[in-house]
Structures are given as structure tokens and as C-alpha cells.
């Protein structure tokens, strides 16, 4: 029973992250205050219990306890959840075609960028986002000899 609760909390944390990402995109000029039960900052192990994230014009301007929330702010209460920073996948092949780049060499030289061969329709983009990944370094298969830029 305890395992199910932990798994649900992990899934809910990821949903909170996705929701925050959507807010950044759609309410860019708003002031948003998100209250979290536990907020992991990614900054020197700093964690805030019952903290607040204040966002102005799409940028985080304050994180902590006892943050003054402006009266015109949109308040979102996730005090039953944990909020994490976006995760970084620093070795990925998301969005590259074909599926196994080690078996199907592609023409890829120093004049190319990874953007030239990325597939925005790859289903793994959505899986990465649902898993909390916000930044990806992607490139050709690890078995390929290639140059260019990631």
C-alpha cells in the first residue's frame, strides 16, 4: 500500500511540473504564486517545506517560505505535492530517425546541426516531458562516426 502512495506522489509531482510549464507558456504576463508542500530548488540542496514559487512575466522571481504574494497574483495550491526543477537528459537520441542510428548510418557532416534531422513527431518527446525532462542533449547514434553539433 505504501508503494502505491509513493508512486502516486511521484506521478502527481510530474503532473505539477507539466502544469507549471504550461503556465509559463500561456500566462507570460501574469503574476503566479504556486504553493508547494515541498519545493526542491536544485540550488545547493535547498528544500522548502510549505513554500511558495512566485512567477512574474514567465520568470521565477522568488522561491521560499513567507513570500509576499501580490493581491493580483493567480494562486495555485499544490501544498499536498512536491515540486521539482526540470530534469536534464544529457545523452539522448530523442527525435532522431531511424530508431536505431547505430544500424542505419545517415549522412551527417560538420555542416549539419542536430536540428536538421530532428523529428518533432517522435513520441519520446511527450514521454520525456511527462517524466519531468525540460532540457535534452540529443545527437546521432553512439556507434556512428560523425561530426556536427548536438
TrEMBL record:
Q: Does the keyword Transmembrane helix apply?
A: yes
Entry's Gene Ontology cellular component terms: cytosol
Keywords, A to Z, come to: Membrane, Transmembrane, Transmembrane helix
Where does the sequence pass through the membrane?
A: 15-34
**Record carries keyword Oxidoreductase:** no
A GO molecular function term, named singly, is: hydrolase activity, acting on carbon-nitrogen (but not peptide) bonds, in cyclic amides
Q: Which PANTHER family match?
A: COLLAPSIN RESPONSE MEDIATOR PROTEIN (PTHR11647:SF1), HYDRANTOINASE/DIHYDROPYRIMIDINASE FAMILY MEMBER (PTHR11647)
Please identify the protein, giving its name as recorded: Amidohydrolase-related domain-containing protein
Amino acid at each position: 500500500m505504501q508503494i502505491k502512495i509513493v508512486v502516486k506522489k511521484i506521478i502527481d509531482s510530474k503532473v505539477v511540473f507539466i502544469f507549471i510549464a504550461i503556465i509559463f507558456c500561456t500566462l507570460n504576463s501574469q503574476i503566479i504564486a504556486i504553493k508547494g508542500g515541498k519545493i526542491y530548488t536544485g540550488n545547493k540542496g535547498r528544500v522548502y517545506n510549505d513554500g511558495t514559487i512566485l512567477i512574474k512575466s514567465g520568470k521565477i522571481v522568488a522561491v521560499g517560505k513567507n513570500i509576499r504574494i501580490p493581491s493580483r497574483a493567480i494562486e495555485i495550491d499544490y501544498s499536498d505535492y512536491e515540486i521539482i526543477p526540470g530534469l536534464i537528459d544529457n545523452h539522448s537520441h530523442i527525435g532522431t530517425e531511424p530508431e536505431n542510428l547505430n544500424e542505419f548510418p545517415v549522412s551527417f557532416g560538420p555542416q549539419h546541426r542536430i536540428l536538421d534531422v530532428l523529428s518533432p513527431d517522435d513520441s519520446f518527446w511527450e514521454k520525456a516531458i511527462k517524466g519531468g525532462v525540460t532540457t535534452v542533449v540529443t545527437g546521432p547514434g553512439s556507434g556512428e562516426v560523425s561530426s556536427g553539433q548536438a
